[in-house]
Amino acid sequence: MKTFQIHYIFFVFFFIAVTSLQAQEQKRIKIEYSGFLTTSETKYPGAKVLTRDDSGQIHIIHEGVNMWCDQAIFYSKEDFIEAYGNVKMKQGDTINMDAKYVEYSGKTKLAFASGDVVLTEPSSVLTTDTLYFDRAKQQSFYKTGGKVVRDSSGTITSTIGRYYMDVKKYQFVNKVKLVNPQYILETEQLDYYTENALAYMYGPSTITGETSKIYCERGFYDTKSDMGYFIKNSKIDYDNRTIKGDSLYFDRNKNFASATNNITVTDTLNNSVIKGHYAEVYRAKDSVFITKRALAISVQERDSLYIHGDTLMVTGKPEHRITRAFRNVKMYKSDMSGKADSIHMDQQTGLTQLINLSRLAPKDNFAVKRRPIIWNVGNQMTGDTIHIKSNAEEERLDSLIVFENAFIISKDTIGKGFNQIKGQRLYGLFNDQNQLKQVDIIRNAESIYYARNDEQKLIGIEKSKSANISMFFEGNEIIELKKINQVDGTLFPESKYPANATQLSGFDWREEERPKSVEDLFTDDPPLDLPIIKGLEPYVPQDEFFDDQLIDRAEEAEETNKSNNLQNPSKASRHIPSKDSIQNLKPDLKTPATLEKAP
């Protein structure tokens, strides 16, 4: 019984040993077919020279890889082969490589291919002059320029490229250019996934199309769906508009772009800028929608106009832009400011309309209505609707009209009283300094006027009614008041003027609401809560293709050669740098310094 057990155990160990030896044998390069076999110790010491015949090419096998060629130099002791002429290498059903020349080591599992190299996988075709293929890591690598063609995405070229076969990902570095019929993408590094055609850009990057140009330093682009997401110094040049923001989204098929946080949209044709923290741009409709601290700036050399509202919309062709501001709108220039529910500005005609909506009026019949309001120097003007006409070319105000319930108030230059005129409609004209020079009140005019002599002494307070009133200004002072078809009027000494008659019906002095700077436009806004930009991870430099594992495999082959008294350095190390020299290669293999650094 014991003898049987001993024999059984011996048989098991023998079987394992034989199986292990067979497995090791199977890991060596095998010549499946060769037409002719010769040797040449002078030219190829220790090697077999294999040549094809008319029936077919030389067929070589190693661990799931099949290779065919016209001629091969096989160093069986080093488990190394050199293949020449119409070389084809196939791994499974997905990876095919063609080249004029291939070296392959069964010890390092590294293939080196040169001469019209073509690597084909199901979604793309790579061509280059020199390619490294590490079967242990399932990665291929070139560093002297290459091109990848994918039908739906276009053609990608770069100086350095790496293909990760397990995840079907290309990583292109240095002078990367993707050419598509619709656009050209240029960047410093592009990570590209062949199965879903997704591209990730790092470093200064541009996407240039027929009608738009995108710039970013970190971004994502779906080359199949033509849509992308961009962050870090991103901007889009789009039909005479430049859109900047912390993050940008772009859909080429829908002609749509959106931006989030710290947005600036510059109209290069009309010399205007709008700002905010969320924007949408519809190219087909020539419209921009912007909100969250929205601000429109009509840039002028002498004095720009600022308009702020909850929401801004800019629509129309470049030659005829319309700007609309909604909800609690304020405007500011150094010589004029205003408020309204909404503002409508036509940049071509120079007409700005201030409008209040009746549905927003107070329900209390005794409450004073919050009508649109304009402040110009020392004058306050209100009415149901206000139109301001300006000359954009000469950068000056031209005229204004106040429709219905016109009311103009100016503080007396010395005393505490107020000059007041009201009527059905108001027409105003401006001088070259954008100051009112004449105001006409039409129909049912009423006035309270503090009359002073040349020494600015108060003569009296006049209260009157007439059909129309004309006022003439010099600087901030009324120098003449004309009444047409006066119904009645009385000049009272200040001491005899009725104390309860110092204000006309509807008087509403609103100086505390007056914006006196750009910052004052935002005083009524709620606290700003901006979203945190997420989505794209910072750039991470690629690992070395010639990493420690590959170098260790080459050094192991060196030791094997030494122990077998074979030639050193081994052929397996022919294209693999040593650990000492790898540092000298890093500038060639790593990403150029122009790429961003991880924050």
From TrEMBL:
The keyword Cell cycle does not apply. It holds the Pfam family OstA_2. One of its GO terms (molecular function) is glycolipid transfer activity. One of its GO terms (biological process) is lipopolysaccharide transport. Residues 562-571 have a biased composition (Polar residues). InterPro entries: LPS_export_LptA, OstA-like_N. Gene3D superfamilies: Lipopolysaccharide (LPS) transport protein A like domain (2.60.450.10). The keyword Hydrolase does not apply. Keywords: Signal. PANTHER family: LIPOPOLYSACCHARIDE EXPORT SYSTEM PROTEIN LPTA. This is Lipopolysaccharide export system protein LptA. The lineage of its organism: Bacteria, Pseudomonadati, Bacteroidota, Flavobacteriia, Flavobacteriales.
